[in-house]
Design a protein that fits this description.
By secondary structure, the protein is of the alpha+beta class. The chain is built from 5 helices and 26 strands. Helices cover about 20% and strands about 50% of the residues.
């Protein structure tokens, strides 16, 4: 009998706990709905707040450029409905406010030739025209924007490619790496431009080249300096090569007309890599072998050093024998 009583008590308690959960859920639902309705109602009211906008300055005075710290943001004290202001607060990126320095009066700071300031109250109509009609502009913060100007200078400088490359086996560089355009015009403060003699591209890494490659690379930007071009084309010529072996007569340089020089041996054996397109003419046109008579006075054993040179971008990995030859001088 006691057991039945306990079961009945447990069932009653369970029903009451379930009813409590249902009541709590219903209460929470209506609380959330009421909160949302209250919040939506509040958003329909008009508020005054401050919103920070990015700032873009346009058209500096002719022949001048801004130096030093440039204002990048501007704070606007605005009025609008809560819905409108909420959109601005939630925006990840606001449209920049643009100020044309050529259309607004700049005031010179006392005792300075290059420092000026702009009363932001004079930019009120310019800024208002860039805002949506849902917002009303009350005030711009700060009250003044300060600028320092310097003389603008232009200069032509070379573009230096930052490039790392490698070739597939049996391929080699078949000409100079070229940049188009190879130079650009930079402009900026005289004190900065005078120190710049070249600009560099961003680093490029190209592997396993088998044919002519033309790549586009961005020029590295320099603070407070404008570039006439942002990108250049870099060309890497490539061609297949083969191994060539041949004998070549040794020429004599700087030999007086009254003397003759006999060399033993008179030929040098050359081995090199050569681009395929020049293979048939490499020994005649693109490789030279010679000794210099001026070295005779420094020779202690009647031997001269042989020098062999190959045309760059056509001949590579050049080797030859012998390295030295004997000589005999005859008077004519």
């Amino acid at each position: 009998m006691d057991t039945d009583l306990l079961k009945q008590f447990g069932q009653v308690f369970s029903r009451q706990r379930a009813n409590l959960k249902v009541r709590l859920a219903i209460f929470s639902f209506f609380l959330v709905v009421a909160t949302i309705l209250w919040y939506l109602n509040k958003l329909s009211y008009e508020y005054t707040t401050e919103v920070t906008f990015p700032l873009e300055l346009e058209n500096t005075p002719r022949g001048k450029v801004i130096v030093g710290d440039v204002p990048e943001e501007i704070i606007l004290n605005v009025r609008g409905h809560g819905y409108t202001l909420l959109r601005y607060w939630l925006a990840s990126r606001l449209t920049p406010i643009k100020i044309d320095l050529n259309r607004l009066p700049l005031e010179r700071m006392d005792g300075s030739e290059n420092k000026f300031y702009l009363l932001t109250s004079r930019a009120q109509s310019t800024v208002t025209s860039q805002l949506k009609t849902e917002l009303q502009l009350d005030r711009i913060i700060p009250d003044q924007l300060h600028f320092e100007f310097a003389e603008l200078k232009e200069k032509k400088v070379k573009v230096v490619p930052q490039l790392t490359y490698s070739f597939e086996p049996q391929y080699m560089l078949a000409g100079p790496v070229t940049v188009n355009p190879d130079s650009i015009i930079i402009s900026g403060p005289n004190s900065i431009v005078d120190t710049i003699n070249s600009v560099s591209t961003k680093e490029l890494d190209v592997d396993n080249i088998t044919s002519k490659q033309t790549l586009t690379s961005e020029i590295v930007r320099i603070d407070q300096v404008s570039l006439s071009k942002r990108n250049v084309n870099i060309t890497i010529p490539s061609e297949k090569f083969t191994e060539a072996s041949f004998s070549k007569p040794i020429a004599i340089r700087n030999l007086p007309d009254t003397l003759s020089l006999i060399l033993l041996p008179r030929m040098v054996n050359v081995k090199c890599n050569v681009v395929l397109s020049k293979y048939r003419t490499v020994s005649d046109m693109y490789v030279e072998a010679y000794v210099d008579f001026l070295q005779v006075e420094n020779s202690m054993d009647n031997r001269l050093r042989v020098q062999v040179k190959g045309e760059k971008y056509i001949v590579d990995n050049l080797d030859f024998e012998p390295r030295h030859v004997e000589y005999f001088i005859e008077h004519q």
